[in-house]
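Collaborator request, handled under Task 6.
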Amino acid sequence: MNKERILVLEDGSVYPGKAIGSDNFQVGELVFNTSMTGYQEILTDNSYCGQIVMMTYPLIGNYGINRDDSESIEPAVFGFVIKDYCEHPSNWRSQESLDEFLAKENIPGIYDVDTRALTRKIRDKGTMRAKLADADANVEEIVKEINETPVIHDQVERVSTHKLYSVPSRGLKVVLMDFGAKLGIVRELSSRGCDIVVVPYDTPYETIMNFRPDGVMLTNGPGNPEDVPEAIETIRQLMGKTVVFGICLGHQLIALANDAKTYKLKFGHRGGNHPVVFLDDGHVEITSQNHGYAVDADSLKDTDLVMTHQALNDKSCEGVRHTKYPVFSVQFHPEANAGPEDSKDLFDQFISMMEEEKNKKENAYA
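Structure tokens returned to the collaborator:
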């Protein structure tokens, strides 16, 4: 537990600390999350594939790890950075410590780091590439490796399911396109009785429509939305044929499928306390967010999309809907996990839209 470790950034700066987890060191994008709780859900959110996550809240690990709160089976995060580590968790649900979990999942971590200084640096300069290493490692060689390592573009392929599978029920048929889906999305659809078929990110339109879906869910996922052009083309074909609901990366892909644009944020939105205004009636909800890219609101002008939600912090686009087809999306996470559950009724909106479209079709054949 007291082994020395360092975090090296692409600009050559070094942050010393102590080791937890494994020594599976990889070059990743260093990002920060402002949530006070939910570190298990954050570590298992596959939208963090290729990233080293730093928690701004100082005390981490105090309630341990349990069997129920993971958002994926195989975590894809590249590293974990915290200030104060709680070696002996105290919670009735705890089944193992954070250190034990990280070691088991082959994720390297570091604690006793000045996360306040690191956060200020990222807010000022933007996200930076970094790598964890043993304390006696050659820093110059690590900096060279960081700057020479190619940026990865296959994160979605890494975390998406590679096979079709079903989460059966007898309700509305939903095809879920898995770009790195959080299990919370599946739980929300299952709790509403949906008959779910989960498909890989590159599943073609014909395969999806063979299931005769009442709706298609486009999930969250990691990386640049422009790195999955095959999904963008599939979404273009789906619009007008079935109801489509996109979350996070799914939201960005809907925008691109309608010829809008996306851009990379300076340091992203990651946390459980982001206020979003619903433009239809002006009410505000606190949301859970995890994304490094956003939809360019100005680029919506010449499309069939209109902005429905807006971030209060930076006025960025947080949701859109199609003016002709039953297609809508949000940038934030209505399933939460972790974070506030203010926006779960968006799943009910998805259900209502599917029922309405299904009734239209049935009446047309009557």
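The cover message to the collaborator said: "The mean pLDDT is 97. The domain at 155-365 is CATH 3.40.50.880 (Rossmann fold). Please let us know whether this matches your experimental observations."
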